[in-house]
């Protein structure tokens, strides 16, 4: 299917097409490029112009460039622009402008990608669905998602993230959502904002991009909920709160064999749904998703039914049964809020010794040591039998734990991975969690190797 013609792409970007071509996809990586893609020569660790020749050899329909790269013929299919990143933004803006469906944007300190995937799967059989790939939520990820969006899309789900102040509003204005959802506000990237109130204001900036009479889906029951509500009000949004006291709320939830059965009240309508996980934070995200989809005009009952097909992405809380061990793989990121949710999930599962293996939580600012130590007071800790820790920050938690729950501490996750056989026993239920840069995922890899398992979704030869 044609995504862009050379003329349409040139008009959108103000660039010059060296010859006619037809684009069926957009790529920034020659390793995953498909024939017919437009290769976007972004500058990152390497200059994408160095890979244009390879992209064309692999079947790229054209390349988006700011100059003709060395070794590429003058008559090669190129779209030449002054600035590649700006042109990608222009292409995304044009993609959004021509699409007549509904756009849902999602941000939050925790759960953006999981919630985006919930929304995508819940919308099955409700038209043509387009969603951000992986965690493409930054200054190039959002325009890339929009540039890839087919013109006949009925529902688009756009994930928007940030690391520093001022990043969300421009991306929200690019996406122009009809519905914008904030999953939660937590102490993530705190060192860039100084206080959680600053994070809340940055998350609330997503509402600045809403279309007229757009809907703001906000979490109730937070200390900063009023800040989010103020941001939504300033944007003229219609506000829907979700949570224990929201217009969208869980009425009943019970965990059975690692799955959670939920009855929820969504904007006056009662629906039943099942989630293939024990995490109560996923229940709340599902309630928020259903509120967002209902506000976007989707069929609520059908969306609730299809949530049963959703599973947490790898590294984000998926529960899997290995040979003799039940693993909660939550090794992609961590902050006090998401760690508390992970511990609560561990506490809820029954059948064996509960073991937590925890890596450092990063980007928490000057109070990071106190925040790590403070996790020893988390209510769910009382149900955890043993806590192993890795990293200089996690030493504070190790020292704050009661001796009967204090496991092994190592300076690196790799050291714990090497000792996995002595840290985990048959019958254990194991939570592995830490910020991505703590490399606690090496513990997950070691556990899977020793228990002769593959990750969910992977196949052995």
UniProtKB/TrEMBL annotation:
EC number: 6.3.2.10
Source organism (scientific name): Paracoccus aminovorans
A GO CC annotation given for this chain: cytoplasm
Full protein name: UDP-N-acetylmuramoyl-tripeptide--D-alanyl-D-alanine ligase
Family: Belongs to the MurCDEF family. MurF subfamily.
Main enzyme class: ligase
InterPro entries: Mur-like_cat_sf, Mur_ligase_C, Mur_ligase_C_dom_sf, Mur_ligase_cen, Mur_ligase_N, MurCDEF_CellWall_CoF430Synth, MurE/MurF_N, UDP-N-AcMur_synth
Occurrences of domain Mur ligase central (ranges): 106-292
Keyword Transcription tagged: no
